[in-house]
Each structure stands twice: as structure tokens, then as C-alpha cells.
Amino acid sequence: MHLAWLRPRRSLAGRLALAVTGAVTAALVLAAALSVWREVDRYAADKQAALEAVAQVFAHGGARATAANDEAAAAASLRAIGNVPSIVYGAIERPDGSVLAEQGIGLRLTQDAALDGADLSLLHLFAAQSLRATAPILENGRPVGRVVLIGETDDIRDHVWAAGQNAALAALLAVAIGIGVSFYLQRSVTRPLGALTRTMEAVRLRHDYTQRAPVESDDEVGALARTLNDLLSAVNERDHRLAAHSAHLEAEVQARTADLREAKQAADAANAAKSTFLATMSHEIRTPMNGVLVMAELLASADLPVRQRRYAEVIARSGRSLLAIINDILDFAKVEAGKLDLEHVPVCPAEIADTVVTLFAERARAAGLDLAADIAPEVPQAILGDPVRLGQVVSNFVSNALKFTEAGHVSVRMALDAGDGCLVIAVADTGIGIPQDKLATIFSAFSQADQSTTRRFGGTGLGLSIAQQIIAAMGGTVAVESRVGAGSTFSARIPVTVAEPARPILRHGTVPAAIVLDTAGPATRVALAASLSAAGFAPVAADRGAAPAHWVLDAAALVAAGRRPDRAGRVLVLAGAGDNAADQALRSGLADAVLRWPVIQAEWRPLLAALAAGDPFTASAAVAVATDLMPQFSGARVLVADDSAVNREVALEALARCGVTDVVTVEDGAAAVAAAGAQRFDLILMDGSMPVLDGFAAARTIRQREAATDRRTPIVALTAHVLGEAAEAAEAAGMNGTLLKPFTLRQLADLLQAHVPSLRDAAREAAAGSEEARAALPTGASPGAAPQASPDGDLLDAEVLDGLLSLGDGAFLDRVLDLYRAQGPVALATLRSALAVSDQPAIARAAHSLKSMSANIGARALVARLRAIEDAARNAACAEPQEACDGLETLLAVTIRDLEGRTRAQAVAA
After folding, report:
1. Which residues of 258-270 are buried (b: 16+ CB within 10 A; e: fewer)?
2. Which residues pair with 152 in a beta bridge?
3. In which element (H, E) is residue 61 found?
4. In this structure, how many other beta carbons lie within 10 angstroms of the beta carbon of residue 58?
5. Of the candidates 775, 805, 768, which has an alpha carbon nearest to the alpha carbon of residue 790?
6. Which pLDDT value is given to residue 789?
7. Strand-pair category, 549-554 with 538-540
8. What is each CA distance from 22 to 16, 176, 177, in whole angstroms?
9. What letters, b where the CB count within 10 A reaches 16 and e where it falls short, cover 750-771?
10. Alpha helical stretches, state H, 79-219
């Protein structure tokens, strides 16, 4: 390091020495320059002053001669300059500048002289090497001329050289002192830094954290060394701890691994237990649900009055919704992931509203509340969505509203936002309301307005939270508006895709617009008024005057009045289920149609359409519901093994609907094995969980026995297990598939079609499809044959005819028959034209029109034929030729003839 100052770019010591030396040298050079300058300036000033003093002397001595203009005397006075050293020229000038006398070298006067000391700079003095001085010559105070003297300055170089030597000696001494100071600083500052650097380099190269930097002072460098030593000590201590930890790490990892293995085994055991519980609960719930749903479907497809059929359909539809919700509850993976899988199928919003108000009608009636649904005319006929989830949301809103409403009403409204096209569902009530500070948490799970709410009204607080999650999964939002004591409105906005546009109903110009709404229920009254106004009617007050108007009023009030309202047009009465006042009003001719409470769109829209068009009302005020024609497998032999008597009965009835009557039932797996060995079956439906021998073991036994033969009977697991190992055990047992309980008739028919398609009886299906229509014709007649006598019971609905005959004095049926005789052929001609061009929507409309008027007079066989055509056309699958109308024309003629016979018989009896 002793030569480090020679490498300034690499050494701090060198840079420090160079900085000190350079600073001292620069200062000395500047000081020497200033000293030389001052010396030259002092020399020039002294020289000038001496020269001016001599000039004053000569001016005084030559004053008389100059005044007398005596050149000789003036020259004599100047000769003395030769005795003055360094003066090389002297002259006496007249006032006009001419020379009176002069001595010395005059040629240097104008070229070299520094005029009167005007420029005494060092450079000028070195160049001119002379000075000039002047003094005025006065005679009696009057200037008579002047003396000019020039002196040499050639000794100035000697003075400058001497000053420079002194400055150089001083600079050398100062530089020596600076170098000494720099070496001192190197020893006191840079040497400890160098030692610190060597220590850090050793640590870097050898990773030896035991090295320590020497601490030689208490200054900043010493503090830096101590800090480095502390850091090395901390790192060294950490290394010791890491080494100690590494020594025990393997044992710690083994211990942690054992703990994790035990925890995993415990979690797997808990998961298996939960799955087992869910699978068991699934089986226990779905087994009774099987009986409920299948029997409800069988009931709905039976020959029931329209309203009873609708009740059965609501039961079946609600059961399916319940089953779908149960499936989601039991779907462990879905619950764990917090997801909801949504369907994307056509959904009718009006049907959702109908189902909900029908489900909660009895609850509302028992609480003395009015319940109504208002569907705006712009709401599409169908949207793409999940019907179960959408119904669940509306049900949760309505259930919540009914729970917290003690008096007043609950209304459901559906509308389409014209701005963003969202479906807006709002449920308003006149209940207790919600405080403003509770609105923010009302959609939280297990949350209600306060704890007293739970104690007073019950519930878990989950309904609104579930509704919010469902709406969020649909991409929508929920909201609530409430005022304490006035009620609440819960709403949902859902973006929708229109599957079938709205079909608004508009009043015909010839139909009177005025209509009186005189019903007790405020929500029902508002809903009916909104629908009527949208259709072009004008609801008016009951006491507005005597102008003609249609009426909608309570059946009990009309019967109590005993007469139709004055100047009434068409009269509709509103009555609850089982209210005999409605039937009495119809039989006595006081009313033209009955509207049941709660008002549902499936009944109200046909009535509104007939009212707006001026068409006759249907007898039942409801839309006829078509039943599906099931495939028939009359030649199939089926074995049903189930330990539940209910399930066996359900299977028997369901198979019978599919034409299967050769059915053997057993109660356990062992009996199933014995029955399968005793006789041959085309299909075996095997329950999974049975006593003695479960269905899976029985299936394996049957498969082992069949291994020696060429026959392999289809075996289908008829099980309620959807979770756990039981759902996969069917495939492992060699079964051909699984039919989950509860099942639908269509699922059973599809199963039969998949496994025994060769046994399907197409002829019997055709017979079943047109059985009612053919029953209207005489024995042996074809649809195109001439009308012959046929029994009324096969052609006409006796219940509808009895209702028509009981109205008025018997002339009512004549009027209805006259209308049917006039309009029926027209509707049939429209249907024929639509069939000719295969216009499916037109076929559906024409078939529906003729079907509705036929149902109104009880033409059962004709309704059945037209229903099949309408359903096929609505699915764009109607392939009936135009000639099919020939058979319908024959059936229409037979129907009219039999109706006329019943009318004549009634008249004779009267």
C-alpha cells in the first residue's frame, strides 16, 4: 500500500494524496503569481515617482530659460541629466508642443516609453522597458512649457526573477508539507479501511465468518469495523443454529409426516362417513319420493277434470322441483365447491308464477291474505334459464313475504326492463317491514331483522341468501326496499335470452272497452286491472253510470244479489277453490265464466283473449292439457325386485302405462335370483338395497349363471342411491344401466325402448293415440265413413254436457250448439288450409281454436284428436296430411249429430 497513491484510480490513499498535493500546489502557484504581480506594480510605482521628482527639479531649474525662450540656457539646464542614472532622454517643450531643448536618445521617446505611467502592466513594462514622466514649467504661476523625461526599466527582469525564486521555494516547502499530511491521513484513515477490505475479501473467498476486522480507532472507521464484526458474529451464530436444526430436521420431518398422515386418515374417514350418510339419506328420501312423483304423474295423466288435473300437475311439478333441490343438497362435491349448476332450457315465466301462487294459495287463504301474480304483456312466452332455480327464487320471496305479513296482500310482478332487457321479478307485501339499518345484512346467511324475528316467525334466515346466490349465478342482482309498518319489496333483475317472444292480447275494436272490477282482493284487483288495461280495456268504477260494461266480481256477491248487473256485457266471477257460489252463478246464468282464486295466467289469459276477441268462453275456463302418449310394449315380460311395497306398486302402474302387463314382483335379491332361474324375462328391474341378498349381489349371481348360456337378460338397477359406492356398484355387478328413483314415465319408456325395442307394439300405440276418436265412430266405421250412431259416453263428456244442460231453461245448450255448428266447420277449414302448406304455427293455432270450442261443449273424442295435432305442431313436428281433416270432418259431424240428439231428448223430457 506504500505506492498506492501512485494509482489514483484504484487507491483511496492515492486519490487523497493527489488531492492534497494538487490543492497545495494550486494555492502556491496562485500566491506566487499574486506576489510577482504586486512586486512589479510596486517597482513601477517607485520608478515612476522617482522619475517625476527629477522632472520637477529640471522644470524648476529651466523655468527662466523656457520663459525667455532661450534655447542655450535650456540646453544647459538639461545637461545635468547625464549625471542621473537610468534617465536616457530629457526635453523641454514649449506650450505648443515644440521642443525647446533635448538631451539623450530621442528615437525611443515615442516607440518604447510608457507615457506618463498610463499603462504600468507587467507585460507592457517587459515590452517597452522604459517609463516617461512629465512636469509643467511655471513662471510666476504661469505655465510656459513642460519637462519630459524617459527612464530605463531594464532591471525589472531581475526583480521578477528574484520574486519567482522566492515563490518557488515557498511552493516546494508547502508541497512537501502536503505530502507529509497525505501520508499521515493514509496511515490514520486508509490503512484501517484497507484492513477492513482485506477482512471482507477473506470472508468472501473462504466463507469464514470467524474473521474479525481490527478496530484501531474510535472514529467512523472504527465504528464501521465494529459493525462489520457484529454482522459476522450474527451470521456465524445463524450458521450454527442452521447446522443444529439440520441435524434434527430429518426427525422433525418424519414426525410431521406422521401427523399429516394421521390427519389425512381422519379427514378421509370423516369424508367417507359424510358420504355414507349422504348416500343413506339420499336413499331414504328418494324412496318415498318415488311413490309421490310417479303416482302424481299417473294421476295427472288420468281422465280428470281440468282443474283436478292441474292440481295433480302442480304436485308433480313441485315434487320434481323438490327432487332437484334435494339432488343439489346431496351433491357433496357441488356443496364443497360452493357452485350451482344451472340449466339453460326454455322456461315460461308465467308458468313459474302460476306454480308459485298455486303452491302458496292455501297458506295465503288461511292467513286471510290476498295473493296474486301480475305478468306484464311484454314478458316473453319463454326464456332460456333454469326453471327449478327460478321457481326457487320466487318461492323464497313469496314464502318470506307471507311469513312477515299479517294483513293485506302479497303480489308477484314480472316485467321486462326496456332499457337492458332484464327480467325484473318483484314480490311486494304489506307486512311488518324491515328497519333501514338491517337492510344491508338481510341477504346474509342465517340473518333476519333481529333475534325476536326468529322467535316470532321462525325460519333459519337461509332463504334470501340462497335466492341471492342463485340470482348471482344467473348473472343478476337482488335488491330490497322496505319501510317499517308499510311492507317490503324484494326484487331480482336477471339478464335473459328470449326463446319465444311475448304474445300480447289486444281488444278487438267491436268489443266494449269498459269493464268493472268489483273484487275484494286488492292485489288481485290490481293485477287484473293491469292486464285489462294492457289489452285495451278501461277499468271503471261500479257506480259510473248506466253505460254497458263487462264485469269481474266475486261469485258470492253476485249470487247474493241474485241478478246480473244492469246493462252488463259479459260477466266473470271470481271464486276460490271449492266455492259452490261460482257453479251456482254459472248454472243460473248470472255469470258467463268462472275465474278461480288465486288467478293464474293459464286460466286468465284464455279468458282475457276470449273477452278481447268477443269469442265464447270455454266451459272450464282453463286450457286443456295434453297427455303424452307412452310407447307400448305389450309383449314384454318384466321382473321387478324391490323390498318396498310402494315401489313395487309404482313400478306396476308405470309399466302398465307403457303397455307392460306381464310383470312379476319379488321382495328380495334371493327371490329375484330364483325367479330369474325359473322363467325367462325380457328385463329385470333390480333395487340395490334389499334384505337377504342385495340387488348387486343378485345381479352378479344371475350373470354367473348366464355365463354358461348364450342368453344375457338386461338388468337395470332401480335404486335411490346417487352418492357413494352404490352409484358405481351397478356397473361392477354387470348391470346394464341405472334408473334412479324417483323416475318419470318418460324415463321408464326410454329405458324399455333402449333394452327391448323389438317388443314395442306400434299398432297398439296407434290405437291408444286415437282410441277416443275412434270410439266416437260406429263399430266398423272408418274416419271417412258416413256418420252412424255411436254411444254418447264414448264421444261426449257427460259431465260437461250435464253442466251445460243445467244452465238456464235448456235453451242455453241450443245457443251454444248453434254457435258450434256455425264456427266449427270454419275452424276445421282453417286447419285444413294450414295442413296443406305445413305451416306449423298456423296448424297449432287452428287446432287450438277448434279444440277449445269443442272442449266447451264436451266433444271428448274430437278434443283428443286435436290435442295431438296441436302438441305436434307446437314442437314443429306435425306431419299430418291434409286428408286427415276428412276424418276430423266426419268426427265433427257425428259430434254435432249426437249433441242435437241430446238436446232433443232434453226437450222431450222437459
Report:
1. eeeeeeeeeeeee
2. 130
3. helix 12-61
4. 25
5. 775
6. 34
7. unpaired
8. 10, 12, 12
9. ebbeebbeebbbeebbeebebe
10. 122-128, 156-185, 191-206
Which secondary-structure segment (H or E) carries 232? Answer: helix 220-300
Q: How confident is the model at residue 772 (pLDDT cuts 50, 70, 90)?
A: very low
- DSSP code, position 144: E
Residue 320 belongs to what H/E stretch? Answer: helix 306-330
pLDDT of residue 161: 77
On the question of pLDDT at 809 being above 80, the answer is: no
> What pairing do the DSSP bridges indicate for beta strands 497-500 and 514-518?
unpaired
C-alpha cell at 441: 345484512
- CA-to-CA distance for 445 and 428, rounded, in angstroms? 21
Distance separating alpha carbons of residues 290 and 528, to the nearest angstrom: 39
Higher-pLDDT residue of 388, 113? 388
562 phi/psi in degrees, rounded to 5: 80, 10
Q: Please say whether the dihedral angle defined by the alpha carbons of residues 278, 650, 763 and 313, taken in this order, is positive or negative.
A: negative
Q: What share of the chain is helix, strand, coil (3-state, %, to 5)?
A: 55, 15, 30
SS3 of residue 875 by DSSP: coil
Tell me the three cell numbers of residue 261: 398422515
Side-chain-facing half-sphere of 145: CA atoms under 13 Å: 27
Ordered DSSP codes for 482-542? EETTTEEEEEEEEE-EEEE--------TTS--EEEEE-S-HHHHHHHHHHHHHTT-EEE-T
Omega of the bond leading into 598 within 30 degrees of 0 (cis): yes
Q: Are 368 and 407 in contact (CB under 8 A)?
A: yes
- To 10 degrees, the CA torsion angle through 593, 599, 602, 607? 30
Count of all residues that appear for the chain in the document: 910
Chain-centroid distance of CA 304 in Å reads 46
Separation of alpha carbons 380 and 348, rounded Å: 8
82, three cell numbers: 547625464
Q: What is the pTM of this model?
A: 0.45
Distance of alpha carbon 729 from alpha carbon 575, whole angstroms? 54
Rounded to 10 deg, the angle between the 12-61 and 156-185 helix axes is 160
Cβ–Cβ < 8 Å for 724, 694: no
